[in-house]
UniProtKB/TrEMBL annotation:
GO MF annotation terms: transferase activity
Region (Disordered): 1-27
Protein name per Swiss-Prot or TrEMBL: Glycosyl transferase CAP10 domain-containing protein
UniProt-listed Pfam families: Glyco_transf_90 (PF05686)
Family assignment from sequence similarity: Belongs to the glycosyltransferase 90 family.
UniProt xrefs under PANTHER family: KDEL LYS-ASP-GLU-LEU CONTAINING - RELATED, PROTEIN O-GLUCOSYLTRANSFERASE 1
Biological source species: Triparma laevis f. longispina
Keywords: Transferase
Length: 458
């Protein structure tokens, strides 16, 4: 399949395996205290009760596995998980603590060079985009207290966050007052709190899924991919930062590698489960309504035809945004069950598909349209036929793409692996934070020049 033209960054220089191992391999000396504790744990007093002995041996088992996983060479870490077989309580414990580290080791060992695909500096440049100064830009409202952050009318209204002021207002509150003004689960506060973990200064930001064109120095969760409509440099449409990480990059995301099914054992099937997001007026009101609809809506309206095929399983899990229940509800499928299929459909919704991260981290192949928006995952730099299989915007050639995969199994498998290797760039927590901090500093500098956080009235 022909890969479209893509923006190519300069070729990154790959780290050597020795440098990698020096950074991530633990030293046996680090675990001497644990080994000493292990000795005392396994030596139970002669008068110890059976339950006491049992507890000691359970704790000792966990300690042994922790030490073993850290001392194994990188090419043995993922093999150790594979050899464990059924998920025992100890295995689940280890996966939770070490899944991201072991996933990083696995992808370092198995992904081709250059790995990662973009260097640290190239990623920073990508998120920032070209600098288009707009001095004298209209000032945005400035949020200076916790209460104001909760009172924002909508999560996607552009505004400035005064991190010092909001933190100061939090210190002045007691627990009772906080409970009156809302919980930490409110989107406005979750986004605000996350942003304040990245910077201590006042910054202009737009939370939420909106993708319209705004001030180029505005921090955003998503922006439109370059196109004739947006402008060929396109990336002047805001600065991307890592927003909503609790949803898009949760801790259990990285366990996808261990829940995955080997390609040879996956079913020849294309699967999708999702809600009717996208927009309130881009879905048909009746089954026979004609017209041009949103990309996800085009997939959904084809459910009756596509599901006649034995190699497709497409279903709606929730009807939202005033969409009529015209196609029923699909049966529940867990992430692990869907990774038992070779093709994972990922239609854009309100913005990028939330499930795209775990789908790419698996070895199944992502099937989606050419992306129109991009986020921290850098979807705009991915190429159809390389990291994913591309379909038309109306999904009209989905059957042809599916059949191509069945007829070209090895090539299809390779695309799945390249998609997984794309995720290698986002696994190093220290590097991620370095990139975030650098992006924030440059965004603050550009915003100061534009003056968008001065003179705004809340």
């Amino acid at each position: 399949m022909q890969a479209p033209t893509r923006r190519k960054p300069p070729s990154p220089s790959a780290s050597t395996a020795n440098e990698f191992d020096d950074k991530y391999e633990a030293s046996a000396d680090d675990h001497k205290p644990l080994i000493s504790a292990l000795s005392s744990l396994t030596t139970s007093p002669s008068n110890a009760s059976p339950s006491n002995k049992c507890f000691r041996y359970i704790v000792a088992t966990v300690v042994v596995i922790v030490i073993t996983i850290n001392l194994l060479p990188s090419n043995k870490v993922h093999q150790a998980f594979t050899d464990l077989g059924v998920p025992t309580p100890s295995q689940i414990y280890i996966k939770t603590l070490y899944s991201k580290r072991a996933a990083l080791l696995l992808l370092h060992d198995t992904c081709p060079s250059p790995n990662p695909k973009f260097t640290k500096s190239e990623r920073i440049s990508y998120y920032l985009g070209p600098n288009h100064p707009q001095p004298g830009a209209e000032g945005l409202p400035v949020v200076t207290t916790y209460k104001e952050a909760l009172a924002l009318p909508r999560v996607d209204v552009p505004h400035c966050i005064d991190s010092v002021g909001v933190r100061s207002s939090l210190r002045d509150l007691n627990v009772v007052d906080k409970s009156k003004w809302g919980t930490i689960l409110e989107p406005q506060w979750m986004y605000t709190n996350e942003l304040m973990s990245y910077t201590s200064n006042t910054v202009a930001v737009k939370f939420g899924d909106g993708k319209g064109k705004m001030c180029p120095s505005l921090l955003r969760k998503i922006r439109q991919v370059p196109s004739p409509e947006v402008g060929e440099d396109g990336m002047g449409n805001g600065i991307i930062y890592k927003a909503g990480s609790w949803r898009h990059y949760p801790e259990n995301l990285w366990s996808t590698i261990y829940e995955d099914t080997k390609w040879e054992n996956k079913r020849n099937k294309a699967v999708w489960r999702g809600a009717t997001t996208g927009c309130r007026n881009c879905y048909p009101k009746t089954l026979d309504e004609e017209g041009t609809f949103g990309s996800r809506a085009e997939l959904v309206r084809k459910i009756p035809i596509l599901n006649k095929r034995s190699d497709m399983d497409i279903g709606v899990t929730q009807y939202t945004q005033n969409v009529n229940n015209l196609w029923g509800l699909g049966s529940y499928l867990s992430r692990e069950e869907m990774m038992g299929d070779k093709l994972l459909l990922m239609p854009e919704g309100n913005d990028v598909a939330t499930g795209l991260k775990w789908a790419m981290l698996s070895t199944s192949v992502v099937v989606m349209t050419k992306t129109t928006v991009e986020s921290w995952l850098m979807e705009g730099a991915m190429a159809g036929g390389v990291e994913y299989l591309e379909v038309k915007m109306d999904w009209s050639n989905l059957a042809d793409v599916v059949e191509w995969c069945w007829e070209n199994d090895e090539e299809c498998k390779e695309i799945g692996k390249k998609g997984q290797c794309w995720m290698r760039m986002f696994l190093d927590d220290n590097e991620e934070m370095d990139i975030i901090k650098t992006v924030m500093l440059e965004a603050e500098r550009r915003q100061f020049e534009d003056g968008i956080c001065r003179g705004g009235k809340n």
